[in-house]
Description:
heterodimer, A: 153 residues, alpha+beta, Heat Shock Protein 90, 5-stranded antiparallel beta sheet, 3 helices, 25% helix, globular, B: 142 residues, alpha/beta
Amino acid sequence: MPVQPRSVPSEDPSPPDVNRVLDHFPTSSVRQLVRDLLTGHAGVVVDDAVLMADELVTNAHRHGRAPRVCRLTVVDHGRRLRIEVDDASPREPRPRIPDHTGGRGLILVDRLASRWGFDHHGDHKTVWAELALDSPGRGGQAPHLAVVRTWST
Amino acid sequence: MSVPSTDDRVPLSTVSELPEADPAPGGLGIVHHEVDGMLVIAVTGEVDLETAPALHEAVTAGIDRTRGMPCVLDLTTVTFLGSAGLTALVDATGRAEARREPLRIVVDSNRPVIRPIQVTGLDDVLRLYHTVDEAVGAGRQR
Lengths: 153, 142
């Protein structure tokens, strides 16, 4: 795999706890992998982790290209879950104003993640998000989602 | 809760009366039943990109069937609701409002359902109720 500088340096060199090729792997199974990985946790943090992983994987299926890969890693001494989803499309995740046809996946990720972003590599991109496992209620937001702040119903 | 009957409602005799939905793993169970003459669509399982179309179809069909009356969507046993499911709820709510047949969504305190609704601000858009009885008892009109 070609190695390129990451726009956001990876802070944690830990090998992923879960590494799955997503093509032909149901999204429902990814959600179960998250629940299994967070067995020691309960409550809203598990719901949020499942939701975030589902949205990143769903985005890769809807807008990305094969091969798609998902990695789940508990980092920072168990304090954070890092979810990474690779796909072969260079197209960046773009927030849009939500309406009756969609547009809420990235909002969910943005509002639940302590931070998220994407990195371009030679032949693929990685969309990643991190969830604080020890502080429910946190809500970091990515600056490139600013357009959605204008959303009103 | 008892609600006065009206004469103009469409008979719901074609609605199935199965007591429990039994979805496949990762799938969706959808059961239609009737409470005090009002159509209640009860959904069980996980609403994701793959199953959201089935939810949308069931609700829009329900709205078609309940001409002139509210329709109740019971999500209290849904175990996952992703953005595709939120889209289905928003679109179905819009269609129902356009026909002046409110879609009443029962969410209880079911966290996997209420969490994505609140995080995306849709609790201001969707008509949410705590119980089926509350949704049915809210009357037949808006």
